[in-house]
Amino acid sequence: MYGFEIIQELASVLSGNEVIVSSNGNISRQVYHYCPQPQIYLRGSMGLPVSVGLGLALARPETQILIILGDGNLLMGLGSLSTTSYVRPSNLKILILDNGVYATTGLQNTTSGTLNYPALLDGFGLSNIVPILRNDSIEDIKDKIQIWLHSPELSVLPALVDAKAPTLSNIPLHPEEISALQRGSND
Ligand SMILES: Cc1ncc(C[n+]2csc(CCOP(=O)(O)OP(=O)(O)O)c2C)c(N)n1
What we know:
Layout: H1 3-11, E1 18-22, H2 26-34, E2 40-41, H3 49-59, E3 64-70, H4 71-76, H5 79-87, E4 92-98, E5 101-102, E6 108-109, H6 117-123, H7 138-149, E7 155-160, H8 175-185
Parallel strand pairs: 1-2, 1-3, 3-4, 4-7
Antiparallel strand pairs: 5-6
Helix pairs in contact: 1-2
The structure holds thiamine diphosphate.
């Protein structure tokens, strides 16, 4: 299972009352191509999707905020999990797509192979779903997405996925245009 397939599955079950914050590089391109627009596609700010999503969840408590980030982004901004756990907005959900590499920049290995997600997230005091594993059935994956998406509290879903070089083109929007589109959708 590739990360983009999980994004496609998620896209098919969104209600419309969600804003996705996606990490820079390939994951933002996939969210741009496979999910309804507009969303918050980070185009830089590596390591900051959890911080951005946390701020958005606090600013828009009536909206479900879904953060989708890669393992490289997670590891770069790990401290933001502690802040998020402390603040605990119930309208915030975090999906980690761990492909074990920095796919966007050439598939260099990250250090995520040594992570034990349930232990890590428990240590931060974060409610977490049993991770999606590479050989999970599609039914298991759908179930885990549903449990995560409809959790009444802050929740985190780690997903171990296969690595693949990016195939999608860059998002044709400047960050200022992305934030203007988002403001417009909220009028
Ligand atoms: C501070 C910083 N360092 C490096 C980069 C270059 N860079 C852009 S995307 C990316 C990889 C992100 O990895 P991950 O979050 O695991 O997502 P993936 O590319 O695997 O989908 C890197 C290293 C950057 N944009 N900013």
